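Task: sequence design from structure.
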């Protein structure tokens, strides 16, 4: 696609012979690729707005083109006399940006705003004029794009500029669509700038805009931006890759024969499908060469199969794996499990009898459109009647198509304390290429939380409760109690437990397990505002608190071994009437275990002979219990009081230091009657803050 200008005489209504003449539809990828492979003619397009209209009609046959012609006339007259640094009339830029979006299938409102996206910033046209002439929706988008235009690439200006861009994108993703197309055209014409400025712009494009294009699913823009950045930042590797592609162009390409074989197989199976060859772009070829070393002919492209329905995708897969040798490790199902950027396809690889391995992508035509254009293919998110929200350009609205990752960025950017933190965290967040969805269960409602892969319960707590998550004291994942540091998996159900004490705060070690910017910023802010509490949570681990009383030996267990010392095993703490077994250990003592204790199996596995053990007739016994609880004041006193009320003697007690506000108490107790053990355990569980009591 050319980015060159038109002139007023080239308007289609002024050149009817051009309007009647059939035009070849422009191929965004082919022309972008040609621009990289060599210089292209810089002749002006004879009818640029006609190409926009034709590309738009290819996707939207019933579109009203009159608004595009009016927008073009306003843009051309308002920019008249302005020139780009390349020496071209400025109108070539909005035309080229609009043509890029038209090729991707953008709807009429987006194209109208694209033609006008620089008028408010660079000319005398006002937002009120745009609203009066083209309506509230176009005005809203133009205003959003205007707020992120004219980026100053100084280090201090970049963070705040992109912060504004995120906010504008969150209100309407079409703002970012125009911005990405705008950056693509600027990157295509970057050669007129100084090398150091080219490098700065390319780095920002690499760090922020390419990841945003990936997350918005606009692969057609992302791949060309990658190639342009690759050529600027890595010229040597780029030239090597260019030479590889040029050398391959003169060799026999096996992919046409493989695609013919695929067509034959699918035709004989009665599956209506369109089979294409998709050449790899420069960066893809470079990555493939790093992965595989020397490239073969089939490594320079992939076979694309387009079908009508989802079920046809799996039918195609079955035929391919039946008639060719599948490479099982290359199979990926992104239809059943779509990527977070809307991408859906089946990926596989098959080996041919000639020894070539070809990668094959199978998708429906609608999946193909979304894979290429991403959010651009979603059209107008306000077409269902919510466009009234745009009546006031200053009024905030929420795009109903806003993806979860963008909502997270919008949430945490408001709390980012300074531009440098925002900038570094933004790039780290955009580097995440996988996302998970977990289900929340707070007892009254069930919903979903979108998180980056590797997120923990801490991240889920801050995503659901905001700053109230400072008081989170535990979590249940899939019904089981777990630590806040536990990582979450896609599809987990999370119930977060909050402390009633409003003064509760996070521990410093939470930062080691927080993955989302929102959680890390909130925790860091709290720790900075509570330095005394922060020091307390990071102090050296204290030794366990122990209260030791008189210790007995084997309680009322008796071994059938004369004069042997009997001890109750600490690993299973047997009590009457447990079935038990004894084993002689060093020093001649007999250690008594419950019969189902793992130690019994280990002893017998090594050939140790058990000693018969029985219980005395007396009812008293000794047992070790472990109480798991959330930390709170007076907990130890309340537990010992509950034990005393049951008439039980505490032989020893050990309290471990709190970990993530959870405390473990271990008690060795002398019971007057073994039958009272269940009631004792219930009484201990009834103590506020205690969530589990079990035998050691």
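Answer:
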């Amino acid at each position: 696609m050319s980015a060159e200008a038109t002139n007023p005489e080239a308007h289609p209504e002024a050149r009817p012979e051009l309007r009647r003449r059939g035009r070849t539809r422009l191929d965004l990828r082919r022309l972008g690729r040609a621009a990289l492979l060599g210089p292209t003619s810089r002749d002006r397009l004879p009818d640029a707005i006609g190409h926009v209209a034709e590309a738009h009609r290819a996707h939207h046959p019933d579109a009203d083109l009159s608004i595009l012609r009016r927008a073009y006339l306003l843009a051309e007259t308002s920019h008249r006399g302005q020139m780009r640094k390349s020496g071209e009339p400025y109108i070539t830029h909005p035309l080229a940006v609009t043509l890029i979006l038209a090729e991707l299938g953008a709807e009429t409102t987006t194209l109208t705003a694209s033609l006008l996206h620089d008028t408010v910033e660079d000319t005398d046209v006002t937002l009120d004029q745009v609203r009066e002439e083209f309506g509230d929706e176009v005005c809203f988008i133009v205003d959003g794009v205007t707020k992120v235009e004219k980026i100053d690439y100084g280090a201090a200006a970049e963070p705040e500029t992109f912060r504004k861009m995120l906010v504008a994108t969150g209100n309407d993703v079409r703002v970012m669509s125009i911005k990405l197309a705008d950056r693509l055209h600027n990157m295509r014409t970057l050669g007129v700038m100084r090398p150091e400025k080219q490098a700065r712009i390319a780095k920002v494009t690499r760090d922020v805009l390419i990841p945003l294009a990936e997350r918005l699913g606009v692969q057609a823009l992302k791949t060309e931006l990658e190639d342009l950045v690759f050529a600027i930042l890595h010229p040597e590797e780029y030239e090597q890759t260019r030479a590889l592609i040029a050398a391959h162009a003169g060799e026999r390409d096996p992919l046409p024969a493989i695609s013919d074989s695929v067509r034959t197989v699918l035709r004989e199976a009665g599956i209506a499908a369109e089979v294409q060859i998709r050449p790899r772009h420069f960066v893809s070829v470079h990555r493939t060469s790093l992965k595989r070393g020397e490239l073969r002919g089939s490594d320079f492209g992939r076979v694309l199969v387009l079908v009508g329905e989802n079920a046809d995708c799996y039918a195609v897969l079955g035929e391919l794996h039946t008639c060719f040798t599948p490479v099982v490790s290359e199979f990926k199902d992104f239809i059943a499990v779509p990527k977070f950027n809307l991408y859906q396809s089946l990926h596989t690889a098959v080996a041919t009898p000639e020894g070539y391995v070809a990668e094959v992508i199978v998708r429906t035509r609608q999946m193909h459109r979304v894979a290429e254009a991403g959010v651009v293919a979603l059209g107008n998110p306000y077409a269902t009647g919510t466009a009234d929200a745009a009546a006031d350009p200053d009024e905030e609205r929420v795009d109903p198509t806003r993806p979860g990752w963008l909502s997270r960025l919008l949430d945490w950017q408001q709390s980012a304390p300074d531009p440098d933190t925002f900038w570094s965290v933004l790039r780290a967040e955009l580097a995440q290429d996988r996302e998970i969805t977990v289900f929340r269960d707070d007892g009254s409602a069930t919903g979903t939380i979108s998180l980056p892969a590797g997120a923990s319960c801490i991240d889920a707590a801050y995503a659901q409760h905001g700053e109230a998550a400072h008081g989170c004291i535990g979590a249940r994942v899939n019904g089981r109690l777990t630590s806040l540091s536990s990582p979450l998996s896609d599809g987990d159900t999370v119930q977060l437990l909050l402390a009633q004490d409003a003064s509760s705060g996070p521990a410093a070690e939470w930062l080691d397990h927080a993955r989302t910017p929102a959680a890390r910023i909130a925790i860091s802010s709290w720790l900075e505002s509570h330095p005394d509490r922060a020091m307390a949570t990071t102090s050296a681990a204290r030794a366990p608190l122990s209260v030791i009383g008189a210790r007995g030996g084997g309680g009322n267990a008796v071994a059938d071994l004369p004069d042997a010392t009997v001890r109750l095993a600490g690993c299973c703490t047997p009590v009457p009437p447990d079935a038990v077994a004894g084993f002689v250990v060093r020093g001649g003592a007999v250690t008594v275990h419950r019969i189902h204790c793992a130690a019994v199996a280990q002893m017998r596995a090594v050939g140790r002979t058990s000693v018969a053990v029985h219980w005395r007739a007396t009812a008293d016994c000794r047992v070790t219990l472990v109480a798991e609880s959330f930390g709170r004041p007076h907990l130890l006193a309340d537990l010992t009081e509950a034990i005393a009320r049951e008439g039980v003697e505490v032989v020893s007690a050990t309290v471990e230091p709190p970990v993530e506000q959870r405390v473990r108490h271990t008690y060795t107790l002398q019971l007057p009657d073994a039958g009272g053990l269940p009631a004792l355990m219930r009484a201990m569980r009834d103590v506020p803050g205690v969530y589990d009591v079990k035998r050691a």
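The chain has a mean pLDDT of 76.
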